[in-house]
Amino acid sequence: MYRIGIDLGGTLIKAGLMYNGQVKAFEIFEANAGNGVKGNLPLIESAVNALMAGSKVLPDQLGGVGLAFPGLVDPVRNAVISTNQKYDDAFDVDFNAWAESNWNVPFCMDNDARLAMIGEWQYGAARGHQNVVMLTIGTGIGTGVVLEGKVLYGQHFQAGSLGDIL
């Protein structure tokens, strides 16, 4: 099955089409963060649809969509907890319904730095390690932690977030 990964950055939005852990195609476009998440969703939808069409991926070949959000996220409910003053309208978006209505696939989301760390842990430089700390530097600074082979979340999904810099 193919998967779509979306990185909702403060400056750029990236969408990638993956198959078996390999990026098959991607789109990068400017984030209009001032328009909020709701203003960017149509652009994201178009990018995802273009990736699928360009790679001749049929809807029934898509297994899921994931979103990396630049703030604190409850990955159980796929809901934003804190926006860090980016995409403040995200609290009002039902991301599960959005993915369901557009592609009829499962949806997941998490903090962007945590997901970057998971990617490195599973497929990149940290592969095979049981303890990993990652620092991401972009429009903001984020962190993610793997401790004894488990991603650190904590009771309120804030563990491993070692601080926020706007």
Describe this structure in words.
With 166 residues, this protein is α+β, with helices and mostly antiparallel strands. The chain has 3 helices and 10 strands; from the N terminus they run E-E-E-H-E-E-E-H-E-H-E-E-E. It has helices at residues 36-54, 95-103, 112-123, and strands spanning 2-8, 12-19, 22-30, 62-69, 72-74, 79-82, 107-111, 132-137, 141-147, 150-151. Strands 3-2-1-4-7 form a 5-stranded mixed beta sheet. The protein has a 3-stranded antiparallel beta sheet with strand order 8-9-10, with helices on one face. A two-stranded antiparallel ribbon has the order 5-6. The termini are far apart. The relative contact order is 0.15.
Q: In terms of topology, how is this protein built?
A:
Layout: E1 2-8, E2 12-19, E3 22-30, H1 36-54, E4 62-69, E5 72-74, E6 79-82, H2 95-103, E7 107-111, H3 112-123, E8 132-137, E9 141-147, E10 150-151
Parallel strand pairs: 1-4, 4-7
Antiparallel strand pairs: 1-2, 2-3, 5-6, 8-9, 9-10
Poorly predicted spans: none
Q: Count the helices. How many?
A: 3
Structural class by secondary-structure content: alpha+beta
Order of helices and strands: EEEHEEEHEHEEE
Based on CA inertia axes, which overall geometry fits?
A: globular
Radius of gyration: 15 Å
Oligomer: single chain
Distance between the amino and carboxyl termini? 37 Å
**How are strands sequenced across the largest beta sheet?**
3-2-1-4-7
What is the share of helical residues? Answer: 10-25%
Nearest-integer average pLDDT: 92
**How large a portion of the residues is in β-strands, by DSSP E?**
35-45%
Write down how many β-strands occur, each being a DSSP E stretch of 2 or more residues: 10
For the report, how would you describe the main beta sheet? 5 strands, mixed
